[in-house]
Amino acid sequence: MIIGTAGHVDHGKTALVRALTGVDTDRLKEEKARGISIDLGFAYMPVPNGGVLGFVDVPGHEKFIHNMLAGAGGIDFVLMVVAADDGIMPQTREHLAIVDLLGVERGIVVLSKIDLVSMERREAVKTEIAGALAGTALAGLDVVSVSTFSGEGVAALRTRLFAEARVATPRPISGRFRLAVDRSFSLTGVGTVVTGTVLSGAVAIGDHVKISPSGIPARVRSIHAQNQPAERSEAGERCALNLTGDGIDKNAVHRGDVVLDAGLHAPTDRIDAIVRTLPTEIKAVTQWFPMRLHHAAAEVGARVVLLADQPIAPGAEARVQLVLERPIAAAAGDRFVLRDTSAQRTIGGGRFIDLRAPARKRRTLERLIQLDALAIADSKAALIELCKCAPYYADLTAFARDRALATDHIEHLALRLGLIRVALQNTFAAMSQATWAELKAGVVSTLTTFHADNPDLPGVGMERLRLQLQPRLPAPLFAAALQNLARGKDVALDGAWVRLPSHEIRLTAAEEALWHKVRYLIAGDERFRPPRVRDIAGLIGIGETKVRHLLKLASRIGKVDEVAHDHFFLRSTVAEMADVAADLAAEAPNGFTAAEFRDRLDNGRKVAIQILEFFDRHSVTLRRGDLRRINNHRRDLFRRSDEELSDTPEHGRESSLVGRPDFKSGKGREPVFGGFDSHSLPPLSPSKR
Ligand SMILES: Nc1nc2c(ncn2[C@@H]2O[C@H](COP(=O)(O)OP(=O)(O)OP(=O)(O)O)[C@@H](O)[C@H]2O)c(=O)[nH]1
Ligand SMILES: [Mg+2]
Question: What is the pTM of this model?
Answer without folding.
Answer: 0.78
